[in-house]
Design goal:
The chain is of the alpha/beta class. The protein has 17 helices and 14 strands.
Length: 436
């Protein structure tokens, strides 16, 4: 395995660290230009453009009346999934639902003795678009994406949840996705993918409704479309390649570390798997373990390329240095495979999700633990959070003054208004006082 462990203090280590700290990636210019053209066509041609792109890239025989998944297709999906899937799906829904219910925010009011009332009114957006990637032409349905995006929107109270996902070459959507959507109350699903699906959700077409929020992972065209449309609609985040950073001491198991690095590496050749260990012997063991486990993977070519191009093994002086380095890198998934991981949690400032101990693989968070797996990447964990119920909520301020309250505050309001040169602001207070 071509990952050579290096110490953090070495020149090579410093170069690697500098690259990790500056890993934010913008879309290349060719992608930006292509997406601009797609957005323009969808805005102007609507359904006709969506159908054209769908025929070009997904389903050559797609017709306009097939664009929306029919009630018959929704019903038939249950005949194509087995009981074991339904049982697992029920467990996943219960866990994710239970966790995200704790995130719901309440409206609140404050009252003052002079009769002033101020507060915040929390309301859901009216509609949300949920993008679910095709998953290798529908052969590997990303059920977890349906749940992680759709459940928080439902808890927030979004009245219209619209799901879009690319069809396979026959114009079909994988039945596992259709069943998962129905089990969480989503019945409006359209067969559209990539940037044209995002554009359709943002602008609206004759068939696909316009929404207020768009969430969900995707390729570089999806990410670039979301970037260009941010502001017209709310988006969850601009997601980069999946990434993990594992902090391990000498008592960790090399097999566990290698398995979790590979779990990231198999996503994409651009996925980032990092080990920071305080034990030089561990750093030597992990490459051999990676090589051994690679041979067992169905996606070993992708994982091998990812590790070869982007895999990193760093040897830190101590845990304090390792944790500070993790804070600077601000990774999407942070795993603490150390003797007392809970003792170090107070020192973690920046991470999308934190996994504690030897028995907590990142895969548990992807599917069943409950917290959302849509997480900030590329160092944006410094300021961004996981997707959650709040993604689908908006807040309005409430302000109510009594007559006495306005008299008490009038001088202060007018002082600041005049200082800013806004005499009409000041007059709006004065006219009320004069009329009393």
């Amino acid at each position: 395995m071509p990952i050579t462990p290096v110490t953090t203090a070495s020149q090579e280590g410093q170069i690697l660290i500098a690259g990790l700290l500056n890993r934010f990636q913008s879309a290349d210019s060719s992608c930006r230009v292509s997406v601009e053209e797609i957005l323009k066509r969808i805005r102007e041609e609507k359904d006709a453009a969506v159908l054209d792109y769908c025929r070009q890239f997904d389903a050559p025989e797609m017709t306009l009346d097939q664009l929306q998944v029919s009630a018959a297709e929704m019903h038939a999906a249950y005949d194509s999934v087995d009981t074991a899937f339904l049982e697992t799906l029920a467990v996943a829904i219960e866990r994710i639902q239970g966790f995200h219910e704790r995130e719901m925010e309440d409206s609140w009011l404050q009252t003052r003795e002079d009769g002033t009332i101020v507060g915040r009114l929390v309301r859901p957006v009216d509609s949300a678009g949920l993008y679910v990637p095709g998953g290798q032409g529908g052969s590997t349905p990303l059920v977890s994406s349906v749940l992680m995006n759709g459940i928080p929107a439902g808890i927030a109270g979004v009245a219209q949840r619209v799901m879009v996902t690319p069809p396979n070459a026959r114009g079909e959507v994988n039945p596992h996705l259709l069943v998962a959507a129905q089990e969480i109350g989503i019945t409006e699903i359209y067969k559209a993918g990539s940037a044209w699906a995002i554009a359709a959700l943002a602008y609206g077409t004759e068939t696909i409704p316009r929404v207020d929020v768009i969430v969900g992972p995707g390729n570089q065209f999806v990410a670039e479309a979301k970037r260009q449309l941010s502001g017209l609609v709310r988006i969850d985040m601009i997601a980069g390649p999946s990434e993990v950073l594992i902090i391990a001491d000498g008592r960790a198991r090399a097999a566990n570390i290698a398995a979790d690095m590979l779990a990231q590496a198999e996503h994409d050749p651009q996925a980032l798997a990092i080990l920071v260990t305080t034990d030089a012997e561990m750093a030597r063991q992990v490459p051999a373990e990676l090589e051994r486990q690679l041979a067992l993977l169905s996606r070993q070519d992708i994982a091998r390329r990812s590790l070869a191009d982007r895999g990193v093994i760093l040897i830190a002086e101590d845990l304090e240095e390792a944790i500070e380095l993790a804070n600077e890198i601000a990774i999407e998934h942070l795993e603490l495979m150390i003797a007392d991981p809970w003792a170090k949690v107070p020192f973690i400032r920046h991470a999308g999700a934190i996994f504690l101990g030897d028995h907590t693989p990142e895969a548990a968070g992807d599917y069943l633990a409950g917290p959302n797996h849509v997480l900030p990447t590329m160092g944006t964990a410094r300021f961004a959070s996981a997707l959650g119920v709040e993604t689908f909520l908006k807040k309005s301020s409430i302000i109510s003054y009594s007559e006495i309250a306005l008299k008490n505050d009038a001088g202060h309001i007018q002082m600041l208004a005049r200082l800013e040169g806004l005499t009409a602001h000041a007059a709006s207070v004065a006219v009320r006082l004069a009329g009393e």
